[in-house]
Every structure is written in structure tokens, then in C-alpha cells.
Design a protein that fits this description.
heterodimer; A: mainly beta; 4-stranded antiparallel β-sheet; B: mainly beta; 6-stranded mixed β-sheet; 5-stranded antiparallel β-sheet; about 0% helix
Chain lengths: ~120, ~110
């Protein structure tokens, strides 16, 4: 069964550094998402991406965050200058339709630790 | 803001028993979805129930939705040790199709062998 893959599985970075989290969504999917989960807390929506542009973003997704689909397969999340509070699991998800019709398929996440 | 909130936060039962988890939310929804998360892994979609549906089944899973009470329940029958995981409800707001799902805090289910 096709799956969403994320790399790296664990990223440690120093405060103020830039990080890029990578995702390969399922190949025929059209909608892409990033979520994050701070340890022990809710899964929180960051951003949705469709037709090569951001569809929606949450309050968390400020100017420090950006997303890109640089080619036909990868979907990346960049955090420009990491803060301690950015430490979390970051999940990429994709779907073949919008949220009215299609469930999300999640990757196994990247654990980001900011020191 | 619309939120899915599950209860109980944690549930421990014996293998073979049924497990029931509840979810409440605050605003109008297009659909409600349940996901499972094994420790350290991504979320796996279990079932999607639309706002005009009242009950849905998938294998040992049964989901109900009561839009008048803004609540849903997930029943897992004849539980197995492999069902040990966290279970989340997530709502899709009816006002837009590309918005993210809103997840609850989850119920951590432990199945004792």
C-alpha cells in the first residue's frame, strides 16, 4: 500500500538555525498538509497546500515557516530560525480529495528537537 | 474555535472486552473522523462519518454521530492487545474544504492481555 514518507525521522538543531523537513506524499494525491504535535498535546494543523499554493494556514504558521513543493514528488516544511518551542513531532499528510470527502494519510513524522 | 475533545483521556480494559471512547465538538461540521496513533508513529485513518450519517461500521469498529449533541463515539468490539494505541477524533469544519482537521487530545487505550 502506498505511504507517505518523511525524512529525517529525528532532527536535532540549535536555536536560531534553519531546518527543512522533507516529505514524499502519496503519488496521486493532490492535497498536502503539515501538522505538529508537541509532546503530550494535541495534533495541531499548520498548513494545507493545493495546486501549488497554500490553501489555508493556522496562527502557528507564522513568517518563520514556509512550505514548498520543489518538484513533482517532494513537499517540504522550512523553519527559518528555530525556537525552543518549535520542538515537536511534525507530521506530513496527503489526500486525494479535500476534507469533505477524503481521509488524510499521515507519515510517521519527524521529531524535531531544538536545543 | 471548533474542537474535538475525547473522553476518557485514558482507558484500560481486558482483552476481549469492548472499548468505548467519546468525542465532543463545538461548531458545525462537514464530517468527523477517527484516527489511531501507535506510540511514536503517524496517525492512521479509521473511519469517516458525514454530518448526515448517524452510524457507521468498519470491521470491529462502530462510530456514532449525534449532531444535535455535537458528539461522537467510537466502539471497538472484542478488543485485542494490538488495539493498544491513542485514538483521536478530528472534525472538518463545514465552512471550507481546505482547512485543516481539528484534532482532540485523544484517548489512550490500553488492552491488558
Amino acid at each position: 500500500e502506498p505511504e507517505v514518507t518523511q525524512t529525517p525521522s529525528h532532527q536535532v538543531t540549535q536555536m536560531g538555525q534553519e531546518v527543512i523537513l522533507r516529505c514524499v506524499p502519496i503519488s496521486n494525491h493532490l492535497y498536502f498538509y503539515w501538522y505538529r504535535q508537541i509532546l503530550g498535546q494535541k495534533v495541531e494543523f499548520l498548513v494545507s497546500f493545493y495546486n501549488n499554493e497554500i490553501s489555508e494556514k493556522s496562527e502557528i504558521f507564522d513568517d518563520q515557516f514556509s512550505v514548498e513543493r520543489p518538484d513533482g514528488s517532494n513537499f517540504t516544511l522550512k523553519i527559518r530560525s528555530t525556537k525552543l518551542e518549535d520542538s515537536a513531532m511534525y507530521f506530513c499528510a496527503s489526500s486525494d480529495g479535500n476534507l469533505y470527502n477524503s481521509p488524510l494519510h499521515f507519515g510517521n513524522g519527524t521529531r524535531l528537537t531544538v536545543t | 474555535s471548533q474542537q474535538g475533545e475525547e473522553d476518557p483521556q485514558a482507558l484500560s480494559i481486558q482483552e476481549g472486552e469492548n472499548a468505548t471512547m467519546n468525542c465532543s465538538y463545538k461548531t458545525s461540521i462537514n464530517n468527523l473522523q477517527w484516527y489511531r496513533q501507535n506510540s511514536g508513529r503517524g496517525l492512521v485513518h479509521l473511519i469517516l462519518i458525514r454530518s448526515n450519517e448517524r452510524e457507521k461500521h468498519s470491521g470491529r469498529l462502530r462510530v456514532t454521530l449525534d449532531t444535535s449533541k455535537k458528539s461522537s463515539s467510537l466502539l471497538i468490539t472484542a478488543s485485542r492487545a494490538a488495539d493498544t494505541a491513542s485514538y483521536f477524533c478530528a472534525t472538518a469544519y463545514s465552512g471550507g474544504g481546505a482547512d485543516g482537521l481539528t484534532f482532540g487530545k485523544g484517548t489512550h487505550l490500553i488492552i491488558q492481555p
